[in-house]
Amino acid sequence: MDAVVNFTSQSQGRDRIFRATQYACALSRYLLRNHTERKDLVAKLKSLETNMSAGRKLFRLGNTINSIEAAKRTMRLSDRVLCLCLTAANVSRALYFICDNVLWARSVGLIRDIDKERWSVNSSRFYFLSLVMSLTRDVYMVLQLMAERARDKHFRQKMELHLNESPEVAEAVIPQLDALLFLLWESLKSHPAVALDTLKNICDLFIPLDRLGIYQSNAGVVGFCGLISSVIGIVTLTQPMLKLKP
Predict the structure, then answer these.
(1) CA-closest candidate to residue 124, choices 212, 7, 52
(2) Which of these, 17, 69, 22, 66, lies nearest to 46 by C-alpha position?
(3) Whole-number pLDDT of residue 2
(4) Burial of 6 (0-12, 13-18, 19+ CB in 10 A)
(5) What is the rounded distance in angstroms from the CA atom of residue 25 to the CA atom of residue 43?
(6) What are the per-10-residue average pLDDT scores of the chain (246 residues)?
């Protein structure tokens, strides 16, 4: 019970609960779209989804400053690739939150003279750029892990044993590809924080891709991916050891 209280007392915790609820509603609405007898339920889910989205915008009012401070910290990283990727991701996230805050101010009537569609598109663009840079960081870290594992003598013996024990795989798959996939799997399995962050960013990427029209999916895919990334966000917040650093 204490863990639940501590989680919900954090603004990030409440935001992630709201986010998971929002995308769960979106997914449920998509699955029930053809059930005419569930029209009332679908309408209630849509209303709840809208309320969760509005609530999240309120929780994110201070996130611009947090992202700027995070960018200042990542600029001091000694690894140039991580420095570039994380700083660009944090700056893009800060710009995304600025757009998000302006849209919130318009929705509550504090600002009237703005082009809502333009600000919404810019918000999605900055969100997309932030995710691309975060995914670039993930790929870089995965490659580093794979290189480190490949240099390990015990792991090379384990790989050779795996290839020798699966001759039928070698016939169907190029041995080098099988070895590469085995190396990738073992690297991610030994570092779940990297695996979770990569999966989360891949899932999140479908949201701006759909909004920007770069890759049109549907409300069901967006809802499912948003729900999965939200659950991962909740897990990493409750289990700090699973959160990727830096």
Answers:
(1) 212
(2) 22
(3) 55
(4) exposed
(5) 10
(6) 57 88 96 90 94 87 91 96 97 96 88 90 97 98 93 81 64 67 90 96 96 92 97 93 90
Place of tokens 């309408």: 43
211-221 burial string, b = 16+ CB within 10 Å, else e? beeeeeeeeeb
Q: How far apart are CA 137 and CA 143, in angstroms?
A: 10
Q: How far apart are CA 173 and CA 181, in angstroms?
A: 11
Return the structure tokens found at 78. Answer: 């000694």
pTM given for the model: 0.90
Judge whether 70 and 87 are in contact, CB under 8 Å: no
* Per-residue tokens: 109: 């009537």
Between CA 6 and CA 138 the distance in angstroms is 29
| Cβ atoms 21, 66 nearer than 8 A | no
Copy the structure tokens of residue 94: 């800060």
pLDDT of residue 167: 59
| Eight-class DSSP state of 240 | G
